[in-house]
Write a structure and sequence with these properties.
Blueprint: E1 6-8, E2 11-13, E3 20-25, E4 30-36, H1 40-59, H2 62-78, H3 80-91, H4 95-117, E5 123-125, E6 130-135, E7 138-142, H5 150-161, E8 165-169, H6 177-187, E9 195-197, H7 202-211, E10 217-221, H8 224-235, E11 240-244, E12 249-253, H9 259-270, E13 281-287, H10 291-302, H11 323-338, E14 342-345, E15 362-365, H12 372-375, E16 382-388, H13 391-398, E17 408-410, H14 413-420, E18 429-430, E19 448-449, H15 454-459, E20 462-467
Parallel strand pairs: 7-8, 7-10, 8-9, 10-11, 12-13, 12-17, 13-16, 15-16, 17-18
Antiparallel strand pairs: 1-2, 3-4, 5-6, 6-20, 11-19, 14-15
The chain binds nicotinamide-adenine-dinucleotide.
Nicotinamide-adenine-dinucleotide (NAD) is lined by residues 142-146, 151, 169, 171-172, 201-203, 206-207, 210, 221-223, 226, 229-230, 244-247, 278, 377, 379, 405, 443, 447-448.
Length: 473
């Protein structure tokens, strides 16, 4: 794959910008590729291509769009091994996690979008009119580094299947595997201009896309602060705004719940991507009289995880995604200690690590709700254990956050469901319930606007029009 190119107007082309971004393997610190650092000229060229292609793509039948997506999936599957090796190298996630979450799960997502696209209600008869669902036009898709392929799949498939054209800007930190996804659509015969790839920095490409008058919708996944900036720019031309943002998600262990299940679910959500998952359960709320039992369960569960070389098939947790993330996580660990939390497991990582950006999981206990580590998204393998005295306090603590992305409740089933309904977040898991790939994902409060995934996620890339026809009653 030639990472020095961009994909614009149906072809791999040289960038207009001469600036480059180095992509580092965070486990070895080796520079593995350079991608173009685009500016306004490359961005405008891509938007113009997407804009020109929009009417024709909107006019293709949903079945024709589904067929192209199916062919693209076949091309993606043919590149499976290359993609997995590259994902391990650009992100530092373990082989286990990469195969399961970064590749196979994304393939399942693509299949699900294709299947659900057949169920989109393009025309609905109302009592005296007809409601249509139509694409917005040009969608700017801006994605983060933590699931380099997955976050793109969540936007690209729904946007294309519903008839939008797309300008895609992946994170500058992990832009490489996306080239394979774009190339899969190219090989599948996607018409020119329908999908365009522009690599670069948020403040340059992302900024231009957010403000561009010919972009109709901005779908952004990333930090809450980045999302606010993008939304403010997008609002100047009243674009459709779709935001998938940060989280500080709780697992609430009820007095009658199983501490071992709580520990397994919490760590299973937090650790595999080295804590770099927006929906990670990073706060464990336990009844005060079961604190020691919960701590022991967490210790025991933690012993099942190994941190190490991401390429080793036995490794569970690889490294953090880079220096910026390492420094940030290290800072939060120091702050946890400075504010009086007790470090149950782990240690403060060295200021100047030798080799890659590896961090042993840290579990803090005696965490109080006001501490920084209980309030801010750390985005690393750091768990905060807090205690409560009764269920009302437990629910209050669960909701005591500006975020509302994910949550879990462990306890007797009927009671856990009642408590789940009181939690203000887009998803709530009961005990160790598995994820439903057809379910929408997205946040309450400062975790976002809109939903991704499932039929709801497809419909979020459409707008409604109503036709009042004089021949109808
Ligand atoms: P980030 O906000 O730094 O960057 C996300 C993307 O936006 C990147 O492509 C970046 O280049 C671009 N960007 C950044 N600032 C911009 C600006 N001012 N204007 C335009 N574009 C800009 O986030 P990140 O560090 O890449 O990702 C981590 C964050 O993403 C975490 O907060 C995590 O919770 C969140 N996240 C949320 C979800 C979700 O579905 N809710 C999923 C994954 C990650």
């Amino acid at each position: 794959m030639n990472f020095s190119q961009l994909y614009t107007d149906g072809a791999w082309v040289a960038p207009l910008s001469t600036d480059r971004i180095a992509v580092e393997n965070p486990a070895t610190r080796e520079i593995i590729a350079h991608v173009p650092a685009c500016g306004q000229a490359d961005t405008d060229r891509a938007v113009a291509a997407a804009n020109a292609a929009a009417p024709r793509w909107q006019g293709t039948s949903p079945a024709a769009r589904i067929e192209i997506a199916q062919r693209a999936l076949e091309h993606l599957l043919a590149a499976r091994d290359d993609i997995i090796e590259l994902e391990i190298a650009e992100l530092g996630s373990s082989r286990k996690q990469t195969v399961a979450a970064h590749f196979e799960f994304q393939v399942q997502r693509i299949r699900t979008f294709i299947r659900l696209a057949e169920r989109i209600p393009w025309e609905t008869k109302l009592e005296h009119s007809t409601m249509l669902r139509e694409p917005f036009g040009v969608v700017a898709a801006i994605t983060p580094w933590n699931y380099p392929l997955g976050q793109v799949v969540q936007k690209l498939l729904p946007a294309l299947l519903t008839g939008n054209t797309v300008v895609l800007k992946p994170s500058q930190h992990t832009p490489l595997t996306v080239y394979y996804l774009v190339d899969a659509f190219h090989r599948a015969g996607l018409p020119a201009g329908v999908l365009n790839l522009v690599t670069g920095r948020g403040g340059e490409v992302g900024d231009r896309l957010s403000a561009h008058p010919d972009v109709d919708m901005v779908s952004f996944t990333g930090s809450t602060s980045g999302g606010i900036t993008v939304a403010q720019k997008a609002l100047q031309t009243v674009k459709q705004i779709h935001l998938e943002l940060g989280g500080k998600s709780p697992l609430l262990l009820l007095p009658g719940g199983d501490a071992a299940v709580a520990a397994r679910v919490t760590l299973g959500s937090l650790l595999p991507n080295c804590g770099q998952t927006c929906s990670a359960l990073s706060r464990l709320l336990v009844p005060i009289d079961r604190k020691e039992e919960a701590e022991a369960a967490v210790r025991q569960e933690l012993a099942r995880y190994t941190v190490g070389d991401p390429t080793d098939p036995a490794t569970d947790i690889g490294c953090l995604s880079g220096r910026r993330q390492y420094d940030k996580v290290r800072h939060y660990i120091e702050q946890g200690l400075a504010e009086g939390a007790t470090m149950l497991t782990g240690s403060v990582p060295p200021a100047d690590p030798q080799g890659g950006y590896f961090v042993e999981p840290v579990v803090f206990t005696d965490v109080t709700p006001q501490m920084t580590i209980a309030r801010e998204e750390i985005f690393g393998p750091v768990l905060s254990v807090l205690t409560y005295t009764d269920i009302d306090e437990g629910v209050r603590l669960a909701n005591d956050t500006v975020y509302g992305l994910n949550a879990a409740v462990c306890g007797p089933h009927a009671e856990a469901v009642r408590v789940a309904k009181r939690i203000r977040s887009g998803n709530v898991y009961i005990n160790d319930a598995p994820r439903d790939i057809t379910a929408p994902f997205g946040g309450y409060k400062q975790s976002g606007i809109g939903r991704e995934g499932g039929l709801v996620g497809l419909l979020d890339f459409t707008q409604t029009k109503v036709i009042f026809d004089e021949t109808r009653e």
